[in-house]
Amino acid sequence: MNEDKTLFGMTMERKNSTSESPKYSTTAKVFHWGFVVLFAYGIAKQVDDISQLEDFALLRFELIFATILILLLAIRFLYMTKTQASSLPKETSAFQKLAAKLVHLGMYASLTSIALSGILIGGIYWMGIKEGLLIEGIITVHELAVTASYWLIGLHIVAAVFHRFKNDGVWNSMVPVCKEKETKQIE
Asked: Residues near 140 by Cβ (< 8 Å), separated by ≥ 6?
């Protein structure tokens, strides 16, 4: 039966669209969930105080980690844009499509900015510039990028949960758990 629900003023029509939405490839899912793990790891092992970079082994590790992150982001971006289509249903509003695109591009930009500013901080620190306007400015950019990534990832998660309740197939296209149940639409 076709059930309509309202969430935040938007009609949530339940229909048998979970099978109609494009599914992401296994590679796309590995990239997606791999970046969840990489980001969580990066946050868990983050440098709390810049003086920790005195340890050259830690500095080298941070620089290598950031460089690998940038390379993987570039590969993922190219892969996703060249081989994958959005799983948003065709009837999705232009506003939601634009919001999804901006959030995704924003996540790429913020994650790249985190890694690039981290490389700059490490390089400048290694050159002996351990305080001053230059390094403080780059640290500020780094912190802003981290904050932006938290907000954008939060929006991404809220949108995913929204689509889970909307039962439109978007959730099932990327998330391997709590699958949407297909409902039969009676016309």
From this structure: none
